[in-house]
Amino acid sequence: MATPHITAEKGDFAPAVLMPGDPKRAQRMAEALLTDARKVTDVRGIGGYTGLYRGKPLSVMASGMGQPSLAIYATELYSFYDVERIVRVGTMGGLAADASPGDVVIALGAHTDSSIVGGVVPGIHFSATASWNLLRAAVEAAGDDPQVKVGTVVSRDRFYGNPIEQTKRLAEIGTLGVEMEAAGLYTIAAELGKEALAVLTISDLLFDPSRDMTAEERESKFSKALSIAAAAAVG
């Protein structure tokens, strides 16, 4: 069985999938985490891998950038490959005054400027939130680590050109960071009766760019978020 964007056979994916945006990061995650890993799909360079993590089946697959791209892969995994849980593992720009590059945010919910949440319930502003079981498991895996925070993020459609006053206001109401996928993932999971979570590493600070990670660091410094996400996914 194949979908327009995934060439895997039914049963090739584990019930739980870790989903970074970057295909290179997905490959690196699979190599770092999984034993007996095998590539199960590679359409358009978006690799998917399945193996074992601590003796339990786990898959890793990239989503590409942005909510529309993620929505395609999440919908196909949930709908055609019996995937029950997707945990996004990615980077984001930090908004909190006490944030530092390398901090991890477990996204309780995601504001968004995207139309992807529109029409889920006509006449209602849908709240894109994480699944409780995954959220609880991630918080338990993080323990008392002071570098791990739980709170809301914002998922934007545009990387450039966002109003600075809007960004400041988001920070004022406690939004911990800006990224581009979580709200879409939470929305698709809710629509299909599945589970979803985002565990995000702060790679840059929107109000202090002098401390931003390099491109190389963005690809490699995700070990803490990855271990939390993996523990939640298989737990």
UniProtKB/TrEMBL annotation:
Domain Nucleoside phosphorylase per the UniProt entry, residue ranges: 16-230
InterPro entries: DeoD-type, Nucleoside_phosphorylase_d, Nucleoside_phosphorylase_sf
UniProt GO MF annotations: purine-nucleoside phosphorylase activity; uridine phosphorylase activity
Entry EC number(s): 2.4.2.3
UniProtKB keywords: Glycosyltransferase, Transferase
Coiled-coil segments on the chain, per record: none
GO BP annotation list: nucleoside metabolic process
Gene name in the database record: deoD
Single GO cellular component term: cytosol
Keyword Transferase: yes
One of the Pfam families matching this protein, by short name: PNP_UDP_1
Statement: the UniProt record of this protein carries the keyword Lipid metabolism: no
Catalyzed reactions: uridine + phosphate = alpha-D-ribose 1-phosphate + uracil
The protein's name: Uridine phosphorylase
NCBIfam families associated with the record: PRK05819.1
